[in-house]
Amino acid sequence: MLKSLKIRAVLIVVFLVVSVIYCLPNVYEPQGALKQYLPSEKIHLGLDLKGGMHLLLELDTVKMMQNLLERKFNGFKDGMIRDSIRFLALDKKGNAVVVTVKADQKEKLYNLVGKEFPDLKAETTRVDGDNFTAEFVWLDKEISNIKENAVRQALETIRNRIDQFGVTEPVIVQQGQNEILVQLPGVEDHDRALELIGKTAQLEFKLVDEENAANATSGAVPEGDELLTEKKRNRETGIVTTTPILVKKQALLTGDLLTNAKVGIGSGMGAEIRVDLEFNSEGARLFDKITGENTGKRVAIVLDNTVYSAPVVRERISGGRAQISGSFTMDEAKDLAIVLRAGALPAPVKVIQNITIGPTLGQDSIRKGMQAAALGAILVIIFMVFYYRYSGVVADIALFLNLIYLLGAFAALKATMTLPGIAGIILTMGIGVDTNVLIFERIREELRLGKTVRAAIDGGYSKAWLTIFDAHITTLITTFIMFIFGTGPIKGFAVTLSVGIIINLFTAVFGSKVIFDWIVVKYKPRSLSI
Questions:
Q1: Fewer CB atoms near the end CB (10 Å): N or C, the chain?
Q2: Is the pLDDT of residue 71 over 80?
């Protein structure tokens, strides 16, 4: 008995010490050599406690479909040219491609569609003399799949960008068909975060049309060209200016062949901050070909229809490396490298809800939450002592252990504390008290039957065990279901409650029993204050 009691007591003390160590950074910052041995991270606070950004984004699937259909149309046109299919007319009509060919080209046309565009079907056909006209439309299932994949890709891209931005415990979930909920606890530079998340980041290399540049205006752009703006920052004044620049519409190279992007700094005083790019093998081959064929010409580096730089190609560049130099600040270069590494969004996103939660409001929430928890704890402690006398003190000690263990587990697991999490802690305390009430009532029954103190304690715990275990398991199952099907705050509440339930089973049953056994062994009481 004594040996078993010592082992159980040591176990409780070890857990208590470990929990206190993990909770320590919240009240004391380790100094000197202690930093190497003690945890340094505080308990993470959620958006409602720490403040930050709450964004609801809408993916512009209409624009995405327009871009996609444009690319598909260009691919269809390239395929016809490559397969030497002579066409008399080729045009877009909503979601359809309308093509007119000579009747003898019909078979080659259908072969191309069947081989490379299986998601197209001929909606209508018409024969007019020797001419054959077909209207191909995209299958509804294909369009639906494209939209679903676009939302998933956008979720992944935004998640990658935020991870690299350094935000801990962000919430990024799909809401509805094409909306994305983003919560960023602790973010203070809201404009920078918004710019980082919302940037489409479609990177393209395009040839500058210098021959027609002098005569081009916004109302008179040569066919096959487009008028973009080049962004330049004065490095001394920081003023950003934009100038029009005429480029070819057809991109020579796109950012989907990129493997890495990082910030680079030139040498010497006033060194320029740039973004260094690395392409995969296919990108390197294309870049080598592009620079070889366009030596002496300007190639514009375009991101989301803005030209960041348009250097003159001096020589063929092999190895798949390029640079974007646009008089960046360090933050701008870092953010640009992040969005290029994380990949492009499949379509522009529109912010339809932008709520900023200030840290003051978060502190107020913490204060009120803690006040509620403290008031509840004080009332429970007083009630237990009043109703169960000295045994009530044992229950209060178990409750204290429960709270310390729970906070320690939160810090060790790097979980995020939210307002629903605080509610979970308060509920856990209530369950802990309820557990001890069940045990104490059974002990009272045993004492009324005339059993000794030790027999009554053993009998009380033994008879209450199955009821307690059953109640805890059913609650645990409920929290598991809440975690699986819930989102955001519901998940936080489920995590807090499930961890609290497990710890409560340990402290309210195991912990309080150890204290009673210690009292019986040390003082051998003839009666129990309960």
A1: N
A2: no
Distance (Å) of CA 253 to CA 168, 246, 298, 402: 35, 17, 14, 60
For residue 50, what is the enclosing H or E element?
A: helix 47-50
What is the phi/psi pair of residue 279, to 5°? -105, 160
80 DSSP assignment = H
Does the pLDDT at position 362 exceed 80?
no
- Mean pLDDT along residues 464-481: 88
Which residues have CB under 8 Å from 169's CB, separation 6+?
Answer: 44, 46, 185, 416
CB 179 within 8 A of CB 59: yes
Q: What is the pLDDT of residues 195-236, one digit of tens each?
A: 888 777 778 888 898 888 777 676 778 888 888 888 777 766
The average confidence (pLDDT) of the chain is 81
Question: What per-residue string of b and e applies to 445-460 under the rule 16 or more CB within 10 Å gives b?
Answer: ebbeeebbbbebbbbb
DSSP 55: E
pTM: 0.60
Contact 327, 272 (CB under 8 A): yes
Place of tokens 């705050």: 489
Q: Which tokens in the block code for residue 402? A: 């429960």
**Backbone dihedral angles phi then psi of residue 17, each to the nearest 5 degrees:** -65, -45
Q: How far is CA 501 from CA 186, 261, 402, 432, 504, in A?
A: 29, 46, 10, 8, 5
Unique residue bearing structure tokens 């080598």: 288
- How far apart CA 323 and CA 337 sit, in angstroms, is 11
CA distance 201 to 194: 14
Query: Does residue 268 have a pLDDT over 70?
Result: no
Contacts of residues 372-376 at CB distance under 8 Å and 24 or more positions apart, as own/partner, are 372/422, 372/426, 373/422, 373/425, 373/426, 373/429, 376/426, 376/429, 376/430
What pLDDT does 352 receive? 86
- What is the helix (H) or strand (E) element at residue 43, kind and residue range? none
pLDDT over 80 at 325, yes or no: no
Residue 373 carries which side chain, given as an amino acid letter?
A
Cβ neighbours of residue 398 closer than 8 Å, sequence gap 6 or more: 432, 436, 507, 508, 511, 512, 515
Helix, strand, coil shares, percent, the chain, to 5: 55, 25, 20
**Tokens 């960008």, residue?**
161
CA distance linking residue 518 with residue 397, whole number of Å: 14
Using the predicted structure, report yes or no on whether residue 269 has a pLDDT greater than 70: no
Neighbours of 474 (CB within 10 A): 10
Query: 419-461 pLDDT, tens per residue?
Result: 788 888 888 888 888 888 899 889 888 888 888 888 888 888 8
Residue 83 has pLDDT above 80, yes or no: yes
Tokens encoding 395: 């229950």
User: Residue range 295-319: average pLDDT?
Assistant: 83
**Quick one: pLDDT at residue 286?**
82
Amino acid at 419: L
* Strands 240-248 and 44-45, bridge-based pairing: unpaired
